[in-house]
Structures are given as C-alpha cells and as structure tokens.
Amino acid sequence: MARTLFGGALSAVIPLNAKDISELRQIPDNQEVFAHSQTDQSIIIELLEYQSQVQDAEAARYHFEDVAASNKAVENGAWEVRGLEQLSQSELSIQECSSAWLLSGAQLVSKFNEEAKNTVNIHLCLFRLPQYTTDILVTFNDPVCINPLSSSAVGNVAATPWTLQDFQGVLQSFCLLDPGVFGLDQLNETG
Q: Chain centroid to CA 13: how far?
C-alpha cells in the first residue's frame, strides 16, 4: 500500500520492515528517510533544487557525487559509478518529470564518523521536474561489505534485506499528488 510523503504531497510504496526515521530523530524538511528495521539499509527521498547547469544524465552523476561528499567518501577510490540508465516514462507513475535516471554505484562510508569504512551499494533515481525547479532524488543505500570494526557489524543475519526489486517498486509507485509542495503557490500569491 502506498504511503503518503511530505504531508500528503507525494506517495510511494515503501518496502516492508521500514521504520520512519523522523519518528526517531529530526530530519530536514526536504527529506523523508526510511530505514530497514533489521539491517542498515535505508531509502531517502529528497526534494532538491533543480540543477539547470547540468544535463539530465550528468545531473544524476552530480547528485551522486554530492551524496559522496556528504558521506565523506570523496578521496580517490572511495566511490565509483557502475551504471547509468534512463528510465522509461511508461514504467513510472510520476508523469510530471521531464526525465528519470537510475544510477548505480558504490561508496566507502563510515558510520557516525568511525574510522571503519563499509562498502555501500548506492542506487539513486533522479526525477527531473524543471517546471517546479526541483530535482527529486530517491536513494537506496545497501551496505554489502561491513568492516568488522564498524558499529554496523552487529547485524541480524536472519533479517530479510530489501532487494533491488523493492527499490524499483518505490520508483514505479512514486506519485505527485500536490505540486504545492514545491512552494510555487507562494510565488504566485506574492508575485
């Protein structure tokens, strides 16, 4: 069943065992964050400023590098892009995007500023909405190699992790219900 996001402005089918992180700690207003209840996997949905200076495919790479910077995975060899493809509009529920791009890569990420770094597969989908000056980024963080010294090393081996198919379900069900979330109503009222 679809879960409403951003106060009902968007919706998507979020996988089972998802914990809404905003119930545990403060999350920025432009993000929705869900973590698997038994693994270190997470899905993050972000409303970002449209990056008009980069073309569509390069915009996905731009946002991936931005995620790498926020993960402090910027040194040489700490991240790689493994694949980049355009998604077909016919596979998506969100029809307002001018294009959608799926990037797959990996980053070496430490948790809570620890020295130990974990290899995290990152699947990132970029929905481009230039008419709303917005890029929507949906990111699936999937740790695949946990350093034994990491706080993530104490995992639940019996847990059923999310799959790439679960993430694709999020992307295919992702829907815009209220464009007012992008703040354009305020512009029209004051303009």
A: 14
